[in-house]
Automatic annotation (TrEMBL), chains A, B:
GO molecular function, one term: glutamate-5-semialdehyde dehydrogenase activity
Organism (species): Aureimonas populi
This protein's name: Gamma-glutamyl phosphate reductase
Keywords in alphabetical order: Amino-acid biosynthesis, Cytoplasm, NADP, Oxidoreductase, Proline biosynthesis
Gene3D superfamilies with a match to the protein in the record: Aldehyde Dehydrogenase, Chain A, domain 1, Aldehyde Dehydrogenase, Chain A, domain 2
Primary localization: cytoplasm
UniProt entry tagged with the keyword NADP: yes
Function: Catalyzes the NADPH-dependent reduction of L-glutamate 5-phosphate into L-glutamate 5-semialdehyde and phosphate. The product spontaneously undergoes cyclization to form 1-pyrroline-5-carboxylate.
Length: 427, 427
């Protein structure tokens, strides 16, 4: 594997070759049986376990370089592998093997008056490009999900985790080999050059069908801005929780604390709390006190601070900010219509939740908001492919095309129509 | 309405305003009831009938200008309206009203072990841009399909049909008004400048969710090349018909003649005939004689010409050509695998058909080819939303994302997830 950086011309040549090989592998994978794909996934898991010492040694090298470069503790944590994390990578590969194979599933089937039988059948998408940052486990997770859906994948991990990713990638290729599937089904860009990302975003001469960025906002923003192929992504998860006049107070409090504080750094954590003015007198303070007791900084409008003086003043910018931290912005609104209006203005179209005992109000909220996931009487932290029963996800998408919400193996497929006749021709 | 051309700066301002108004209308339409949308469609149909004299007068003006400009007879035919065609436009609007409303339909529904009920529900896509050429009826057809799916639409018709389209558009707006829906739900770009297309392809500051080009190859190619938003389209329909060794000869002959000759100018017409070498001696000549008798020029490889000397020599380029005319290219292949290999090399991923009595061979063909529509023992000319039972189509897509194959009202929708709980929070 080349180790240093290459000049731009060589990168283009390198990446075009990767694209061509991925496309060839995708054709073979489209015809792979469920047994072949699962055999590869189980063999990958065994290879990851067998190669654990090599993987950990490579990770030590990455970590040493990152420490020398003065990277932050949170970065080093994301980069770090240990025996437990390697075991979890192997287990995740086995978990993907146990998922139903989406390819070949009949999505719809109907018969026309002329006797033609039409079926809409899931097919692989083709070639998926995954661009991620420092977490080495994404190499295995993304590779496995793409393979299960019959796709070839081109992985471009962060330069800081290249040795770790390459070691894991070696185990994946061993699994593919053992199952008789092409090694090019899962390729890892072997150089750290940023120009490789640019080539992927251009689509590698039509070889790449979709790009999935996994990482921070600046990576996603670059991908969304520059990609000439479709992208499955969310730029941010500015999720709202609305407590309606008909909300049970205890339920509202429990959901608010969970939606914000269970994990503050994930895209499904609530960033803004909206409370119905009609129950501000009864519901606002207990909910905010529970959030504060859980360690959350509360930022409120003047109205909120009048009822809960401990709140920090919230400015317009707070309602546009995805804190990804133990901070929440709070505003009062006029019932569900006020909540819908606020969310239409500030939402990132990811996930929003309402707490109410009024079924009609809940339906109005669920029908009136254009976000990927809408919840009634449940925490925003359920915005997750695993929690949806998808058995894993490669990310969450906020675009309205093809995949929206959690992107699992089914969302990594396309479909076509199979029409069966008995000699029909069109009059 | 401005009549002349505008400078580029004004076009940008004009189009941005159209985009903003479309987005505002889309928000209102997303909450429109089925009754409101259908009332608008019926009122539009009545308005088209009531305004038929104005529409025909505007069309006469367009035709006079086109004749003065020396346009071809086929162009003039596409542009021409008469009383029957106006009546057909009104009927098409009523037909769309009778289609089921896709918005709000539950696509999937399941319950998680923790009691969360998850439903995947169809929602409008948002704002659709339709760019078309000289057929004025597209104004009504595209406007109606987008409205039924709860979308706002921005129509950009050919400059040669602007007066006709504007007259029809006036009737559509009258229908929207009568139903209490915003007139901005269906906007027509009121100027002929090509720069307006460029602005639409850039997405009008994020207002446009998808572009649908309706027209010839050069229009579609420009849209696919320049669009910064998703496109539903096919560049060409280079459709294949494969006659297998297990084909019934009479069925093969009837399907071949229909697939090529029923209408030669549509995207679903067959352009290449592949015949299994194993039955070349029995099947080739009768099929080609039937095609020739129907008025088709047959172009064949040397092998084909040895068995059917009347064939014109076919070069490599013939197998890459969508004739859209009474011409067919013919080659021999080694069974279904040979057909799959030929199609993988030359196909435009639109529609391919096999004639065979062997079920296993048919399944291999249907599973082995990456095209939007695959048919067994049926004519390629069934590649049509109406024939699929979609009740109309805005086009046929060959991309693998979101919509593939015929694009009807269902394909003009997105979806989101509605999660109903009883106070669940995530452990």
């Amino acid at each position: 594997m080349p180790d240093g950086t290459l000049i731009a011309d060589s990168i283009e040549t390198l990446m075009d070759g990767i694209g061509r090989r991925a496309k060839a592998a995708a054709r073979r994978l489209a015809g792979a049986t469920t047994d072949e794909k699962n055999a590869a996934l189980f063999a990958m898991a065994s290879a990851v376990e067998a190669r654990a010492p090599d993987i950990l040694a490579a990770n030590s090298d990455d970590l040493a370089r990152a420490r020398d470069a003065g990277m932050a503790a949170s970065f080093l944590d994301r980069l770090t592998l240990d025996a437990d994390r390697v075991a979890a990578i192997a287990q995740a590969l086995r978990d993907v093997a146990t998922l139903p194979d989406p390819v070949g599933a009949v999505m719809d089937r109907w018969t026309r008056p002329n006797g033609l039988e039409i079926a809409r059948v899931r097919t692989p998408l083709g070639v998926i490009g995954v661009i991620y940052e420092s977490r080495p486990n994404v190499t295995a997770d993304a590779g496995a999900l793409c393979l299960k859906a019959g796709n070839a994948v081109i992985l471009r991990g962060g330069s800081d985790s290249l040795a770790s990713s390459a070691a894991i990638h070696g185990a994946l290729q061993e699994g593919l080999r053992q199952a008789g599937l092409p090694e090019d089904a899962i390729q890892l860009v072997p150089v750290p050059d940023r120009a490789a990302v640019g080539e992927m975003l251009k689509g590698l001469s039509g070889a790449v069908d979709v790009i999935v960025p996994r990482g921070g906002k600046s990576l996603v923003a670059r991908v969304q801005r520059e990609a000439r192929v479709p992208v499955f992504a969310h730029l941010e998860g500015l999720c709202h929780l609305y407590i309606d006049r008909a909300a049970d107070l205890a339920m509202a409090r429990d959901i608010a604390v969970n939606a914000k504080m269970r994990r503050t750094g994930i895209c499904g954590s609530a960033e803004t709390l909206l409370v119905d003015r009609a129950v501000a007198g009864t519901h606002l303070r207990p909910v905010l006190e529970a959030l504060a007791a859980a360690g959350c900084e509360v930022r409120g409008t003047d109205e909120v601070r009048a009822l809960y003086p401990a709140a920090v003043p919230a400015g317009e910018e707070d309602f546009r900010t995805e804190y990804l931290d133990a901070i929440i912005s709070v505003a009062l609104v006029d019932g569900v219509e006020g909540a819908i209006a606020h969310i239409a203005r500030y939402s990132s179209h990811h996930t929003e939740a309402i707490v109410t005992a009024d079924a009609a109000t809940a339906e109005r909220f669920l029908n009136g908001i254009d976000s990927a996931i809408l919840l009634h009487n449940a925490s925003t932290q359920f915005a997750d492919g695993g929690e949806f029963g998808f058995g894993g996800e490669i990310g969450i998408a906020t675009g309205k095309m093809h995949a929206r919400g959690p992107v699992g193996v089914e969302q990594l497929t396309s479909f076509n129509y199979r029409v069966r006749g008995t000699g029909q021709f069109r009059p």
